[in-house]
């Protein structure tokens, strides 16, 4: 529970200690170092699972990837997703560029087809490239808003209906 609340819920160690104490009516009050040890134990026990997920994603014909920037400890960071419809592997880095992508050594090993947001650095990796439908939809919406060309709305509507049709198959 402490590991999930800390990693997924982003709850600080001292607040976790207070929370556990509260829900146990003061019978258990783990120290911050104990909670840190829980996290370390989970990390060690999950290494094989994480490597298995990474290998499965690397061996698929189609991988989705995207990067999201965030702030952590007053620094800009980037979290890159590498996913399939069933698996997701997240990698934090200090940037989105080629240097950081290559440090993670995931996309450098990938030989399948990449779905991404037309980030030009992605064309250095994988075999073929597919642009994410969500991004295409945004571009078409923006095209209409900026130019009032109705074809952009028609194309967007067509792509959305095609997507709905394929979901029903």
Overview of the molecule:
The chain has six helices and five strands; from the N terminus they run αααβββαββαα. The chain is of the alpha/beta class.
Globally, the shape reads: elongated
Percentage of residues in helical conformation = 40-55%
**From the helix content, strand content and strand pairing, which structural class follows?**
alpha/beta
Distance between the termini: 39 Å
Q: How many distinct helices?
A: 6
Oligomeric state: single chain
Work out the strand percent: 15-25%
Order of helices and strands: HHHEEEHEEHH
Record field, number of beta strands: 5
Largest sheet: 5 strands, mixed
Strand order of the largest sheet: 3-2-1-4-5
Rounded mean pLDDT is: 92
List the main descriptive attributes of the protein structure presented here.
169 residues; alpha/beta; five-stranded mixed sheet; 50% helix
Condensed summary:
This protein is α/β, with parallel strands linked by helices and 169 residues long.
Secondary structure blueprint with pairings:
Blueprint: H1 2-7, H2 13-23, H3 32-58, E1 62-72, E2 75-83, E3 88-93, H4 98-104, E4 113-116, E5 129-131, H5 133-147, H6 150-168
Parallel strand pairs: 1-4, 4-5
Antiparallel strand pairs: 1-2, 2-3
Helix pairs in contact: 2-3, 5-6
């Amino acid at each position: 529970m402490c590991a999930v609340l800390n990693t997924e819920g982003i709850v600080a160690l001292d607040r976790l200690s207070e929370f556990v104490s509260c829900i146990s009516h003061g019978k258990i009050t783990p120290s911050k170092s104990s909670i840190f040890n829980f996290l370390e134990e989970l990390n060690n026990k999950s290494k094989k699972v994480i490597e298995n997920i990474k290998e499965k994603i690397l061996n698929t014909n189609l991988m989705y990837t995207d990067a999201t920037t965030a702030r952590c400890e007053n620094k800009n960071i980037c979290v890159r997703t590498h996913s399939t419809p069933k698996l997701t592997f997240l990698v934090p880095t200090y940037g989105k560029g080629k240097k950081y992508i290559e440090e993670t050594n995931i996309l450098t090993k990938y030989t399948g087809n990449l779905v991404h947001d037309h980030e030009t650095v992605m064309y250095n990796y994988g075999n073929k490239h597919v642009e994410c439908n969500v991004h295409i939809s945004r571009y078409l919406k923006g095209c209409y808003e900026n130019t009032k060309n109705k074809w952009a709305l028609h194309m967007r509507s067509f792509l959305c209906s095609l997507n709905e049709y394929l979901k029903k198959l």
